Structure formats: C-alpha cells, structure tokens
Here is the input.
Amino acid sequence: MLKQLTRQIKLSMGIFESNGDTTYGVLAEFSNPGTLLDAARETRKAGYRYFDTHSPFPVHGMDKAMGLGQSIIGPIVFGGALAGLALAVWMQWWMGAIDYPLNISGKPFFSTEPSTPIMFELTILFSALTAVAAMLALNGLPRPYNPLFYSENFRRATDDGFFLHIGANDGQFELERTQEFLESIGGYNVEVIEDRETATATSE
Amino acid sequence: MAEKPTSSSSPLTWLIDPVQPTQDHAEDRYRFTASVRSWVIPTALGAALLILSLVTLFTGETQRFLYAYLTGWSFLLSIALGALFFLLIHHITKAHWSTVVRRIAEAVAYSFPMLAVLSIPILLGMYDLYHWTHPELLDPASPDFDPIIDGKSPYLNEPFFFARLAIYFLAWTVLSYKLYTRSLASDVEHAPDTNYNLRFTSAWGIPVFGVTTAFAAMDLLMTLEPHWYSTIFGIYYFAGAFLSAVCLITLIAGFLQRRGGMLQQTITTEHYHDLGKWMFAMTAFWAYIATSQYMLLWYANIPETTVWYRMRFEGGWMAHTNALVIFHFVLPFLILLPRAAKRALPLLSVMAGWLIVMHWFDLHWVAFPNAFAEGGFHWVDISVGLGLLGIFVGAIVYRLSRHPLVPQKDPYLQRSLKFENF
Here is the structure.
C-alpha cells in the first residue's frame, strides 16, 4: 500500500521505476528541438503517459506537447503564503503582547499597523521558500541516481542531444513495439536502458 | 464635444485628435467598424449629466460640486497619466506583447489638451477648494493668521500654482503628442525609425513623467489639507493611475471585441492574461504604497501628520476607509491571484470595472474628508464623475474611430500577435 503510494508519487515526479525486471525504459535521440517537440506530441497521442524529454535547454511549448497541464505549484505556494502570514501574526502578537510586553511611547502591545511589514515579509519569504521546495519536489530533484546515466549517448543531453525516454512501467510499454514506435516518429540511436543497480545486486 | 472628421484642422478638434483621419489606410481586420453612436452617446450622456449637476451651483452646494469635479477630473487625469506610463514603460523595454493594445493606450493617453480645458472650473473655484488660497491666513494682523501656511506660501501661492500646472500639462501634452502622432504616422508611411524614436522619447519621458506626476498629485490633491504632507503621496496617486489605465484598456479592448466584433484573433487570451497580470500587480503595489504611507505616519504619531488620517477615521469616513482596504486590495488581490481568473475575459472585465470604480472611490476618499466632516456620497459626486467619464470615453472612442486599431506596420506586431504566456 505504502509502496504503491510512493511509486505513484515518484511517477508524478517523473521517476519511472521498472516493473520488477531490470528494464528501465527505451531512450531515443532526436535531431533538434523541433523534432523532439513533434515526437513528444506523437508519443502523447499514441497513448503513452510515462515518458520524459531531455534537452540541453528549455524547449518552449514542451509542457503543452507532453500534455503536462497546469502545474499545481500555485495552490501549494498559496498555502505557504498563508502559513507565513499566520506565523507572522502569531509571532507579533505572542512576542509583543504575551512574552515580553514593552511599552514603547504608549503604543498598543499588539496592533496590525507595525506588524504589517512583518506579515508581508514572512508571507513573501514562505511563498518563495515553498515555491523552490515545491518545484524541486514536483520535479523529483535532486536526483543523483538515474538509470539513464548508464547510456554513453545520453551524456550529450547537457550539450547537443535531444532525447525522449519512455518508461518501462507505462501501461502501453512493450519492448519491441515501443522501440519500433520511437523509430517510426524519427528517433535514432534507440537503446534499451537497463537499471544496472538492481542487476548487479541480483548477480552478486 | 468632438467634431466631424473632415474639420480636423480646427482648434477644437486639435484638442481631441491632432492627426488627420487615417482609417482609410487601415487593413480590413484593423478597421473601426462601429457607428458614430459609439462616441456620440457617451459624450452626449456625459455632457447631459454635467449640465444636470450644475443645479447644485444654485442650491448653495458649490463646494460640493467643486469637490466632485476635482475628484472626477483628477480621476480622468490619473487614467490618462497611467496610459501614458503604459506607453513609456513598454517602449523603453521594447515590449512586444503589448503592441496589439498599444493604439488603445495611445488613444487614452492623448487626453491632456482636453483635460487642460476641463480644468477651468477647478481654477475658477480654487477659493472653495484650496484653503491655502485664503489671503487672511497670511496676514499676521488677522485672527485667522496661520504660521504654517504662511511658511509654505513661497510654494503655495496661486501664480506659482498656475505656472506649475502649465508646466505639467505642457510636458504631458508634448510626450503624448510625440508618442501618439509618430505611432499614427507609421501606419501610413514607411518610417523605419519609428520604434527608435518612440523609445528615445520614452527614455527622457520617464523621469519627466515621474517628477511631474508626483508634483501634480501633491499640488492638486495633497494641498487640499495644506498642513499635511506625505512624500510618498505622488506614488500613491501613480499606483491608482496605472491600475485604472490598465483596467480601462482592458475594458475598451473587451468592448471592441465582444460588442463591436473588431480585432478578432488580434487581442487574444494571452494579451488579456498580461493585462490581468498588470492589474494584479498594481493592486498589490497600491496596497504596498498605501500601507507604507499609513504605517510610518501611525508609527511617528506626530499630530500634524496624523490629522489627515484622523479626518478619515471619523464622521462616517471610517466605513470608506475600511471599504477601501477590502474592495481595493483584499478581495481583488485574492480574486486576481489565480491564473484562470486573468484568462477569463468576463471575470477580468468585471474586475477591471470594479477596480476603476474603486480608484474613483479612493480619490473621493482622498479629496472629500478635507472639507466635509460627514462621510457618504451626494448624488452630484456620482453625476459629475460619470459625466466627465462619459466625455473622456467619448473622446477616446472618437480617436480610435479615426485610425487603424493597431499599429499595423509596427515590426513588433507579428510577434505580438503570436505572443504566448509560458
């Protein structure tokens, strides 16, 4: 149950774990950002859901082509903002009126006027930190280990290579058929990625 | 108010639109297709409301009328200034997205000559509006002698006041004239330097705009309570100005598209989204500036600086103050926060109308408590405001009707049409 849930969460982060066996997925290279964009659209159209694209720079329109939809980061940040605001109100009230009341030129121990900057700043601070943390979490980062790194060719994803990878746990995934599909939409250097971490663990 | 397009050389038309009609050069999809009623009706209704409001001059409510007029007029002035700034900031940053709505902003911005003429009732009624014009305050022998106002008299005197207003209006007219006419000229003739020229004008225009707007806000509205001063007041006025200009541009664009069937596939959801972002940002900016002004005065707690807020916390004005916080900031902020709200034109239009009304409400709150101890509205406040707005909008639609609705030969236009938010 918990394992299932973690799998689902990881999938939403783009971490596709293999289904028991060592096959992690199929990787194909594309010649330029345009063909990668078309390939993502085709892959989506063919019914694949667990796939990801890799390019040296952001490709505009890719999230639409992959059908990623609107990120849920907005509501999450709003939650962070409310938490920051609440903390600021509570902190100003508790410190000023309860814990250490100080009479400063006859002003009230707690009032909204002087607390507004604190409320504003903590709202901003919590929003910003939540945004960064949620962005990392939703992207499944940091991720030091990725089976794709076993591909020599994949190193060029940070230089001049454009890659599309279909996860083995996709409902549509069939090794031969998926390879043929990737070639049919213009992919080359198609290779099967083995999750060697599990492979070495079983062989040793 | 406005004359037939054929007589565009007459001075009256120059006040409204200094350029000969160029609508014949417009590409079909950028043509203004609504009938003359689109600008005659608002102008006529506005003029009728203004004339009706004159009744108060004969019922002994001259001061109420003048305050209503000053509120309505400085409301329009702020919208024109906001539209001018909209042009300046987008030219200087080489913005592409805004090119499709630029002509609307230009039509709004070229309002200064007309507003200068409309300022005559304020200049005639200065004695009732501005307490510092009373000569007995400066006379040491008089029982009403006011040493504070006497000390400010080198700045606050009528000749200098008129001279300053003249300088402001000269600067704004020159700026808006350059931006408006150069842009219109590029529709018909080959003018490859247009964008460079517009950007050059904006470069010196922004500091000139900043100083003149800040001082104008202080002169026109802050000196209604001459004992009080706030160095942030000009920015406060500017925040509302830019906000309401963006709202009016959104409303005009929406109106041209949905009611007039014009500019189809030209102004898209993407452009409304960006206008919505400006709207949202300026709502927050207004609140930031308003808080900055209030918090410092609250904290310093010096009688001559808190008096301005005290007037707004008493006699029924507290309800206005609370309404301002809730309806000018809290609710619009929360409603405009989600992405979906900025991309839904019906909701965005409602918010644009709402925020324009709230900006007028804000200026009403700035002006009236200085002279009227009791809060609330008199019918003339609203009829003068709507009357002036009718004439103002009528003139804008008249300008739009004479020219192509977008800068059709602008090199940035193609990128603006294809613009998409990520």
In short: Chain B touches chain A through twelve residues (CB under 8 Å). Confidence is low (pLDDT under 50) at residues 1-7 of chain B. Chain B has one domain: 32-126+169-417. The CA atoms of residues 280 and 336 of chain B lie 6 Å apart.
